[in-house]
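Final report, closing paragraph on structural work. Over the funding period we assembled a curated collection of sequence-structure pairs, and we close with a single example.
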Amino acid sequence: MFSFACCNVSPVEVMVEFDYAAEADDELTINVGDVITEVVRSCDGWYEGKLNGKRGLFPDNFVKVCTRDWSFDQ
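Its predicted structure, as stored:
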């Protein structure tokens, strides 16, 4: 699996806004409304996070980052 250590950021949570079907073994299939945890921003348009016990990659433009009060960045 690709590592995002180059970004050196703290994990966040995101909410899925658009469905995405995994195209590779290291990707997550995500659905509208899913909340993905332990998310680390990629340097190339992808995030890595955990959903339903599985860690994997997903496109960063399919989600919104959650703020601490569970509102979402606009």
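The radius of gyration is 11 Å. Residues 5-65 form a domain with the SH3 type barrels. fold (CATH 2.30.30.40). We thank the funder for supporting this effort.
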